[in-house]
Structures are given as structure tokens and as C-alpha cells.
Amino acid sequence: MASVLGLFIGGVVTAIPVVTGVAEGVSYQKQQNEEAANETRMIKFNMNVSCESDDELVDEVDQGIVVLRHDKVWIVPRDDNNKPIPPVDTIKPPLHAFAGFYIQYPDDDRFPAERGLVSTISDDPPMLNWIYVDRTTYELRYGNRSASIQHIVGEWDWTDDESAVTLDGWEGFVAVDEGDGEGTKWGGEGLRWAVYFDKDDNGLKGKRGKKPMLEVNLERKLQSEEEQLKQLEDANRKMQVKSQGDLKTQFTAPAADKKKKKVWGK
What we know:
By secondary structure, this protein is an alpha+beta fold. It contains 7 helices and 14 strands. It has helices spanning about 1-10, 20-35, 145-150, 185-190, 225-245, 245-250, 255-260; strands at about 45-50, 65-70, 70-75, 95, 100-105, 115-125, 125-135, 140-145, 155-160, 165, 175, 195, 215, 215-220. The strands form 4 sheets. The protein has a 6-stranded antiparallel β-sheet with strand order 4-2-3-12-11-13, with no helix packed on it. Strand 7 and strand 8 form a beta hairpin. The chain is globular, with a radius of gyration of 22 Å.
């Protein structure tokens, strides 16, 4: 696992920018080496949610899990297997839980370099996106480098005990009620609680109107090596099927269809 992720890191680490002063450059290089060697930051984790509040809505986010949908980051309930429980049964494709790790954000213009956060956004195809904070709205979103580079992409980190996620040195995350009360917003999928970062520590003044808000903690739920290996194996198998075609469709076509001289699996 570490070797696979190591290859990924090797593909995105950027060159050291030209800086004033040898000491500053040496310090930067030392930081880069430490980041590359810190394999614990490459361990994939899910984000579970805790919320300590007297608000009557607290049960809707406490003990939830973070999912990615519509280019935004949401909180939904989770089951005993730490899987998202969809608000409605008709959601397709299924909700995708955050499953990511820390890695340096590739941008030569950022100095010192910032530690970013990536997550898979789907299992088929297997894809990674950056988690970032929209510079205008302060909502957590996900996207590729082009979508994220103008926004707040770090410094992502963890608390001293490595149990929870932080941004810019603190846990300033909040859940904002973006539902419409009827479950018709956001594609009728029943999504309600969107994750924001209270960057100015003022309760998102001027950002959320009268929408209810709850302070939340984003807790790291580490995935086991077995879970990560299974994900890689599933991804490789799906890629092989896509490139080679499904053998059943190649060799077991119904006779009526064969008469049409259709080439199966192409």
C-alpha cells in the first residue's frame, strides 16, 4: 500500500521555488523530506461526525458520516458498518463516503507549500479530487486542481492526538441546514446538512442567512489495510473489465442476436 501511494506522491511533488536565503531553502527542503517520509499521513480514512449541542437538531448530524455529492461535502447518518444511510432510497449512484488522505498540494506559487487533502469521489471509475473551502462562501467542496487552485486548499492537518481533522490549525467546521423541508432540493435526494468552515470564527456571519448551523468535529476513522487493498483490487478488476470487455457478452450471445452479426464486447 505504501509503495502505491508513494508513487502517487512522487507524481505530484513540485520543485522547490527559488527563495531568498539559503537557510529558508534548507528549511523548506527539510519539511518536504519529512512530509514524504511520514507514511501515516497517507493512511486512508473516513470522516465521522460528532456534535455536542443542546439544539434539538443535534441528532441529525451527531454520529453521522461525511459524504461527497454535487461537488459539495455533506453529513448523513451512518449504519453499524460505518456506511452512509441515504436520506431516500432512490439515490443513484449510491452516496460516496469521504475516503482520503493528506498530501502536498501541487502549486509552485504557494510558499511554503500547503498540505492538501484528497478523497476518492467514486469507486467506478476510481478517481481522486481535492477537498477545499470555497473562498467566497466558505463551504467545503471537492474538485480537480483547476477547480480548487483559486480557493483555500490547506493547511489541512490533524489534532495533536491525530483523531480529528483541522484546517488552518483549528477545528472550525460547522454543519449548515441547506434542506428545504420537503426533500426536493439537491435533486430530491434529501440532502440537508452541508459542511462549512467558519474561517472568520463569527458563526458564518453574512454567509448563511437564517439557516440553522451546528458546530461539528470531523473525526478520522482509519481504514484497515485489508479495506484499502480490497479497494485497489476492485478498482483494478473494473479497469480490466472495461479494457478487455465482459467475457460473458463476448462468447454467450443469444442466437438471435448473433444473426445480426453484432460484434459483442467491442
